[in-house]
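Next comes a concrete protein, fold included:
___
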Amino acid sequence: MKTYLLEIKYEFLKALRTPQYSLPTIIFPTIFYYFFGVLYGGKKAGGVKMAEYLLATYGAFGVIAAAMFGFGVTVAVERGHGWLEAKRVTPMPIASYFVAKLVMAMLFSSIVVLILFTMGAFLANVTLPFVKAVTLFATLVSGAITFCALGLAVAFYAGPSSAPAIVNILYLPMAFVSGLWVPIQFLPPAVRDIAQWLPPYHYSQLALHVIGASRGQSVAYHAFAMLAAALLFAAIAFHGYRRDVSQVH
């Protein structure tokens, strides 16, 4: 347990002291929310105020960034520099390495979501009941698990120099098509059809369901899609990890 706690502590401090990760992860969602959620927050989307709607979707946007860059880029860089191989030959359980990354991504996700909640409350007059706010927070932060798995899958099949580009190629188009930037009902029908196959769409719909602004599909449907995606990405990542181990031996 001490090993796990130390790994988590130093992983979080390392990420906090890495401006290439910490600053964009925190600043981009807050800037976007200010310009669209605060300045245009009085308009309606999905039956609720735009400020409330975008609190859910930009929260999802920020969590996906924290998860995918936290795993997809940092693991790829450390793997490319031989750090993961060095970790495997130490007495520490290798699982602690991945658990620390997961907890770090969820901590950063929590920071982003709490900042957006604060902005919504004080700048956009968003008033969520306590239970609904806690449920939305838990939904957003727990969703990081699926995108950590996706980032890890990228990390084991991309080099340290190509991983940032691949993560951006996956992350930004998926976010747009899934309605995280613009409410999905404002997008063309063909785009909405594509979104049904993407994890960020199901993730955002789970968050929107909490505030009563989803498209009406069941929570079980979206939760199953997120779980299936997480298992698929984890299986791909595990295959890449096993390949790395066999190449070393």
